[in-house]
Amino acid sequence: MRDRENHLAPSRSAGPAGVTGGGISSATLIRSAAALFLARGYATSTTRDLAEALGIRKASLYHYIDGKEDLLYAICKQSLDELSERIRETIAVTSPEDCIKEVIATHLRTVLARKDMYSVTLMETRSLTGRRKAEILESRESYRSLVGEAVRQGQATGQIRSDVDTRFLTMALLNHLNWVLFWYTPEDGPAEDLAVIYTLLYLEGAARPV
């Protein structure tokens, strides 16, 4: 499917950009693939499974994509591009004193809005191959660097300890935030409330106040 916005690789019989040959939007195709890959795992999911979920014949699916890796790449690429853009915008408009707090809130708000896609990106990047895998790994590293900038600002303002390397503090924060995807449900409350708790835990720890 020819769709630059959603990063799907061109199919030999693709329709107009943004809409697949049978009238299924690329956004719908990506969301359905993300739900399937999360539920069954990428390795055990098949194009037949995806076709059934979309209510189309398996043969028709190949009017939209050349293979299921097209969809995994699109999920990872779209997720990381969106997250990086949101964090970049947040850092640009936020004071150094508020930067880490706003980055935490932006990250949680963004990933929880598309929980399936971001979960698949975290778990299944390893299933990509060749150039696509290298590109997504590079994008992940670029995102870590963006978050690292927020951590550095926190160190510069004295909010975050400076006796620990920025890289370790950044990885600790990302582990802190990304694990939310594996337990969060809407019953746990809005992302904004969760961000307040996670900011408190990251900046002050879990020790009882004295």
TrEMBL record:
HTH tetR-type domain residues: 23-83
Presence of the UniProt keyword DNA-binding in the record: yes
Pfam families: TetR_C_24 (PF17932), TetR_N (PF00440)
DNA-binding region: 46-65
Stretches the record annotates as Disordered: 1-20
Keyword tags: DNA-binding, Repressor, Transcription, Transcription regulation
UniProt keyword Transcription regulation present: yes
Protein name: TetR/AcrR family transcriptional regulator
Native organism: Pseudonocardia xishanensis
